[in-house]
Amino acid sequence: MEKTEFKAKFKKRLAEKFAMEVSDASANELYQTLGSIMTAAYSQDWQQTWQDYRDQEQKQAYYFSIEFLPGKMLKSNLLNMGWLETVEEALQEMGISLEDLAEVEPDMALGNGGLGRLASCFMDSIASCGLPGNGNGIRYEYGLFKQRFVDGYQVELPDEWLQKGNSWEIRKESKAVDVHFGGNVYLQKDGKDQLKPVYEGGYTVRAVPYDTGMVGYKNNIVNTMRLWSVEIPAEEEDRYRSIEDRRVIEDLTSVLYPDDSNQEGRKLRLSQEYFFVSAGVQSILRYYKRLGYSFDQINQYIAIHINDTHPAMCVAEFMRILIDEEDVSWEKAWNLTIKVMSYTNHTIMAEALEKWSIPMMQEVCPRIYQIIEEIDRRFVKDMTGVQPADLIERTRIIQNGQIHMANLAIIGSHSTNGVAKLHSDLLKSVVLNDFYVMYPTRFNNKTNGIAQRRWSQLANRSMTKVLNETIGTSWNSHPEDIRFLMNFAEDDKVLDALAEAKHENKVKLAAYIKKVKGIDVSPDAIFDVQIKRLHAYKRQLLNLLHIMKLYFDLKENPKLAIHPRVFIFGAKAAPSYHYAKSVIKVINEVANLINNDASIDNKLKVVFLANYNVTLAERIIPAADVSEQISLASKEASGTSNMKLMLNGAVTIATLDGANIEIRDAVGDENIAIFGLTETEVYRYYQEHNYNSSELYHNDPVLHKVLNAFVDGTIPNIAFEGQEIMDSLLKYNDEFFVLRDFAAYCDAQETINQNYQDRRRWKQISLKNIANAGRFSSDNTVKRYAEDIWQIEPVFAHNSEKGANQHGTYLL
Ligand code: 26Q
């Protein structure tokens, strides 16, 4: 694509769309103009991709996820289309800054954190690897709440991301399906002497899909992320005349539930789950029928992935359609279902495993409940005599009046995977051990990964430039090639250039911090970053205790030889998670205390940036020196910000948890700071019931002093929250062993402090982290899913042989 051509096109489109010239248009109008040129340019390939999958009789995978968290799409689409630089320059020549346009795009925040972001990294990689795979989810009217701080407290505001429209989606009215809720169901023999459900009452809503193109990286492949929105069917308009009646329906796709693992099951949440499951499975089967193959071979054409248990009803919905609507026998349908379905577990916290009460499921989707009951009945029958009775009781789906969704997902699928080696091992040995005994071959590991192009080429252009100049550009499309950087570990020019790039990013982040918080931070300080949801197990509190320790050390000895540090936090707490909100308040008050204490000579700063989201992550990560991955060993399934920070040259301080272990294996012990209890030691405490937090408090004078600050007025304005945290640590015996890991953490932090001051050594550590991050590319991860679980194969792009498109870039 030529710049001149693009400029002409841009002006023409702006005139057509808004009857304007560049000088009159707002950033938003310019952004929409650019968006429409881009979607027009890839829509042909989008259509063609569908046709290719169909013509080449490709098996396709469908990734069912109740959350997707793509963030902004403008620059990532430009990058993948091969347009980024040309468009940026062309816009500049017209006096427009691409950054200003990117600024007006709202984050697409239809997810809480790791799980939703992983789904979006996978969407990027699946398309970029030319794999036939699509997303299926919910188009929430409101994404994850926006966070503000008022007097240090978290306040939640609605995320009205659709207010100005969405350039990337297409409403596909013709692909709508109906979803039935509620009422009664009984079985009656039909003409062919088969039992068929008869529905009484209940109500039907229309599910309308909004499709978003998932543009592959320079390969002309455009897959689909299909998000469903609820509408009232025209035929039913009369029934839903009152505002309240309509509200009940519209609520279905209105808001994303904030991650609230401990929350009692809510009816609306269950309805959301059935809504997108039923709509998705129906549309897949409708498409499959059009292809004209028999249902006997459906597993050769369709793979359905269940991302955590939220879409586990896929198992029952798929059964329902095959037996009720397609006259397939139960046995045959069940065999096919198992072959089609696969499931990923994302958590080992027992309280987070989803369960629904029988009456609630009967009320929301009575036929699905019947089918689950029958699956459960047959499971018990088939296992009786084969497995011990107590094992069957512990693994069956319905227990004590509750439906265990993980059990449904495991029993109804051929593959269950964890998201890091340790996590998958713990699933086998502890959490899901009963199932592992029954189905050993169903279990496997798929370590998470990240969309490296977004987290390096887009987010960190200064580092990208150095890498491109040093090792060439093959790593842009083959993330593993970033390992060539290892050859430059002794090259001072490269080490300095990387450090200079990091410094540039820190200057930018410092300016942002000044702008939004009014805090002065020096780019020469260590930028120490903890960014993730606020959860007790992630132990933001441990970080805070160490900050307090440093503060007291400095107060006692202002000459202390520590390198200045800026501690940066980003974290949202679920609105109903009281304890997590208290931690936020306390961090904010500690920040006030430390940032305004002139006596410590700016050696410490604490910055809690509000509203952590994908876009803020893209600002913070390239500027990070230290990556805080300090969850209690065994609790963090994988973590993915650990990978993003590593790729950007941050040095990790970590427990041996989740993917941290694999990061350590990749970089070696000398290039990471590991501390704390191991998973074995944690489990030993559980077994022996001999953890005693008060003892630690009473025997460690440092800990004593730091904890007292929470309740003796040293930290102002936290009378209530300080006591609550103190109680969690002492009265309730410190569930996540914060006090036990405190001393080891402080030592590891001191190692970081010393290493940083040996500048050459630090630069080398940083380089080695970047160079070894390639294995954590989600390209890698999705290829393993494709081969081991979904059995799908890459397609060759239709027009990759055509001259103009041979580099996978797009024509206007
Ligand atoms: C539950 C009930 C009601 C409403 C919401 C929820 C809910 C929503 C989201 C429960 C859990 C989640 C999200 C979980 C999650 O993000 N898990 C993370 O998944 C990442 C990707 O695999 C891992 O890297 C993280 O370790 C894991 O915590």
TrEMBL record:
Gene3D superfamilies: Glycogen Phosphorylase B. PROSITE patterns: PHOSPHORYLASE. Its EC number is 2.4.1.1. Its cofactor is pyridoxal 5'-phosphate. It catalyses: [(1->4)-alpha-D-glucosyl](n) + phosphate = [(1->4)-alpha-D-glucosyl](n-1) + alpha-D-glucose 1-phosphate. InterPro entries: Glycg_phsphrylas (IPR011833), Glyco_trans_35 (IPR000811), Pyridoxal_P_attach_site (IPR035090). It comes from the Bacteria. Keywords: Carbohydrate metabolism, Glycosyltransferase, Pyridoxal phosphate, Transferase. Allosteric enzyme that catalyzes the rate-limiting step in glycogen catabolism, the phosphorolytic cleavage of glycogen to produce glucose-1-phosphate, and plays a central role in maintaining cellular and organismal glucose homeostasis. Phosphorylase is an important allosteric enzyme in carbohydrate metabolism. Enzymes from different sources differ in their regulatory mechanisms and in their natural substrates. However, all known phosphorylases share catalytic and structural properties. PANTHER family: GLYCOGEN PHOSPHORYLASE, GLYCOGEN PHOSPHORYLASE, LIVER FORM. Belongs to the glycogen phosphorylase family. This is Alpha-1,4 glucan phosphorylase. It comes from Candidatus Enterococcus moelleringii.
